[in-house]
Amino acid sequence: GAGVYSVDLWKRAQLEDSSWKYDVVPEIMDGKNIYDFVDPDIDKKLAQLEREEELLMKEAALRDDDQVLNEFAKTQNVLDELHSRMRQKRLENRLSKSKNGNPVLRKKKKKAEDVERQLEKQGLDGSKVRARSAAKTPRSSSLLGKRKRDATAGAADGEVARGRAASALRAASARSMSRMK
């Protein structure tokens, strides 16, 4: 095409006959005479090989029908088994993928009695554990939550619930008002 230049490498070749420069089948290739590798009877030999191949193909076609069907059935069974394993692996992967996002459940707290029994089985004194847990002071009332304080201070549950409900109504009306602006 346009802009493509191909260098003529045979332009300056010095041969006995200058018409040999552009022969389709050169006499010398890679420093060797090609006629040493060409057999004059090659066409006859090729025709004979083609006839033999044709006879072999006809003979194979006659006896291979059952054999081919059996081989096909075996191959199909192996392929079905492979596809089944692939489907099974896909399902396993989908199931395990869904497990990745699940939170890990926390361990249950051990009761002091269970710990004491376990220590006694190991031959240790478990009464010290019981004494230590009993010696801890309970949290002060300032650290308790507001709702717990209200409940212990004598406020009725209905009052606390009504207070929360009124608060929720105010928040909802404030949100709806802000959307109107």
TrEMBL record:
Name the Pfam families on file. Answer: NOGCT (PF08155)
- Residue ranges, compositional bias (Low complexity): 163-181
Write out the ranges of the annotated region (Disordered). 89-181
Which InterPro entries does the record match to this protein? NOG_C
Q: Where is the composition biased (Basic and acidic residues)?
A: 111-123
Q: Where is the NOG C-terminal domain?
A: 1-42
Superkingdom classification of source: Eukaryota
Q: Which ranges form a coiled coil?
A: none
The identity of this protein, by name, is NOG C-terminal domain-containing protein
Ranked from the top, the taxonomy reads: Eukaryota, Sar, Alveolata, Dinophyceae, Peridiniales
